[in-house]
Amino acid sequence: MFGDLERTPRTLLVCERSSFLDEKNRLSSQVEQLHFNYKVSMLLPECSSAPSHLEAVFNSINSFYLIRKLPIHELLDKHFLETAVHQGRVSGLSYGTRIDEDNCVALMPNGHLSLSLDKDSFEVLGVEGKPSRFNQRTNSRFVVSVDLTDSSMAPGGRGYQRLVTGLKSRLQLKTDFLLSHPPGCGASLHAFLSRYDWSEHKPEIRSHTLTDLSSPLLTSDLQSCDPRRLLEWLGAVDAHVSCENSSSSFLSSLVCPEPRTRLSQALSVSVCGLLRPQDVQQLIQQIRCYLEQPRLENWVSLTVHGFVDSPVSWGGEEHGVLRGGDNFYSLLMFHDHTYQLHLATGAHDTCPP
Amino acid sequence: MSVFMDLNVSFSAERSRMTKLIEAAAHLGFSTVAINYVFEPMAKKKLEIPMPTPVKELIDQLPVVQGRSRPIRVLNRLTVVMSDSSHFRPNATEYRGFDLLAVQPTTEKLFHAACMLYDVDIICISVTEKLPFFFKRAPVNGAMDRGVVFEVSYSAAIRDSTRRRYTIANAVSLMESCKGKNVILSSAAEKPLELRGPYDITNLGLLFGLSEGDAKEAVSSTCRSVVLHAESRKSASGIIYTMKTCSESSSQQEALAADLGEAPAAKRAKPHLTQ
């Protein structure tokens, strides 16, 4: 009976080391596959304020829209399909819905619509779907996955009609929806959005300068730091948890991994919102430019978190929450164009690419 | 998985305490709670089965569940503590006012009868004393076949350290007989501080011997199947659906014909039975 207690919750960590100069590096495809990014947090050691070109990238990240109580059949509206899905590469996610409790909806930029429904809703909707991969003894969660660019889902087709009637009359699915669009597509969406209660939001940027921080000695060649301890330390810094482990404090016993050094200052920046993979790519490019000049410390870390309640994770694969729904990746970049990439997921997830 | 439910929140006559309890449950993420009225018939005194107070009198406006956009759902439940077989009267009219029916047997014979015969939804496992009997596989399997679930409540463990030992010991011996199926975990909270969040209760289930998935089911899917089992018990397997008419006095009820009532009942999924 106590065998289960000794096991920690199941997590999956994939570690990769490569270089930007190597042609076979898969970093751009790995970044592209995580469609819905919630937070990007960066740690720049020995830096007191964000460099100007990085600030420029922050300001250029597109805003996203939050639509309250959007009936999901509107995503299948002919006009919306033509302008937003086929031509634009709009993506969106339901907001305020928990993946292990409610019905969740995700619209991916490649035109795939994924509905993660509980048993009652799935049976009422009446559209073909598969049981979730993470079901326990009985099937209590079902996934309906529809390719809106496929010919069978063209407006007027049978599959399309069935889904639209299902969402309009049988299961009136209404959720708050976050919508993100590529640059330049915003105006055409306004006509669609004006029918509902919508608001535009810019990603929230928070920066924090830390002083007198102990950090592990990170170099590109040595296997100096165990990935798990490194990720734990990065998380502690991002959450402002002290890693001193002083004898008088009982709040945290986390320590900085050995071998360690002392930084006089470091800048921790985080951007929260609905971010597209293209925004992440731009940030990575700018940080590479930043690292090209000689610095006191030759590394920068960038961590990208996906949404906990998203129905899909990397590459449109199903995502669920057992005890935690983290799906994130952490990129540690060095000045000689090498990097270490750690991709991590929780129990109810497939292996990251 | 389905929404998180806490099917045992103790009733108290103070309105402010009930309001705070329901608000705390909604804040922690529970989408459904069931107010528990405990009825313990004694041989000497003749006690009346309590009538459930309507939810509107307990709280003005149902709070929205944290992280979702729906308000919390409140059900009524009756627990009959049995020390004699005459204490539970099957098909008593007083039971109709409650959504869920639970029974707490105190002897082995009563436990066997409750598992195999009685028309209830939940069998409570006592956590305040050492179990006077052992769980045998036969009645436990019989209960699982019928769709009856076993309940372990944890707030006694929060209040007192001796009861913590009894809770864990009784729960572990239950899990050995039932192999983790058909179990629900609930608080028997009297104060808002005795409530714990659903993921914390999942971790507590690990301590009782459940696997990770089973422990999460104990707070979500199994509770959903209990509520559906109760609905089908009240409506004779989902065929006849009775509805109280507001204009008449509260004791009168009207049975609608099967075809009229089938529209809401037919959309329900089957009660979850062991597969």
Automatic annotation (TrEMBL), chain A:
Q: Tell me what this protein is called.
A: Ribonuclease P/MRP 40 subunit
Task: Tell me the domain of life.
Answer: Eukaryota
Its GO CC terms are: multimeric ribonuclease P complex; ribonuclease MRP complex
Q: Tell me the organism.
A: Cyclopterus lumpus (Lumpsucker)
- Pfam families in the cross-refs: Ribonuc_P_40
What GO biological process terms are annotated to this protein in UniProt?
endonucleolytic cleavage in ITS1 to separate SSU-rRNA from 5.8S rRNA and LSU-rRNA from tricistronic rRNA transcript (SSU-rRNA, 5.8S rRNA, LSU-rRNA); tRNA 5'-leader removal
Molecular-function GO term, any one = ribonuclease P activity
Automatic annotation (TrEMBL), chain B:
Name of the molecule in the record: Ribonuclease P protein subunit p30
- Residues annotated as region Disordered? 253-275
Which portions of the chain have biased composition (kind: Low complexity)? 253-266
UniProt KW Phosphoprotein keyword:
yes
Q: Does the keyword Aminoacyl-tRNA synthetase apply?
A: no
Instruction: Give any GO molecular function from the UniProt entry.
Output: RNA binding
Q: Which organism is it from?
A: Cyclopterus lumpus (Lumpsucker)
One GO process term, biological-process aspect: translation
The UniProt function text for this chain reads: Component of ribonuclease P, a ribonucleoprotein complex that generates mature tRNA molecules by cleaving their 5'-ends. Also a component of the MRP ribonuclease complex, which cleaves pre-rRNA sequences.
Q: Could you tell me where this protein is found in the cell? A: Nucleus, Nucleolus
Query: GO CC annotations?
Result: nucleolar ribonuclease P complex; ribosome
Kindly state which keywords UniProt assigns to this record, in alphabetical order: Acetylation, Nucleus, Phosphoprotein, rRNA processing, tRNA processing
Q: Which family does it belong to?
A: Belongs to the eukaryotic/archaeal RNase P protein component 3 family.
Give the quaternary structure: Component of nuclear RNase P and RNase MRP ribonucleoproteins. RNase P consists of a catalytic RNA moiety and about 10 protein subunits; POP1, POP4, POP5, POP7, RPP14, RPP21, RPP25, RPP30, RPP38 and RPP40. Within the RNase P complex, POP1, POP7 and RPP25 form the 'finger' subcomplex, POP5, RPP14, RPP40 and homodimeric RPP30 form the 'palm' subcomplex, and RPP21, POP4 and RPP38 form the 'wrist' subcomplex. All subunits of the RNase P complex interact with the catalytic RNA. Several subunits of RNase P are also part of the RNase MRP complex.
Q: Which InterPro entries does this chain map to?
A: Pol/histidinol_Pase-like (IPR016195), Ribosomal_uS2_CS (IPR018130), RNase_P_p30 (IPR002738)
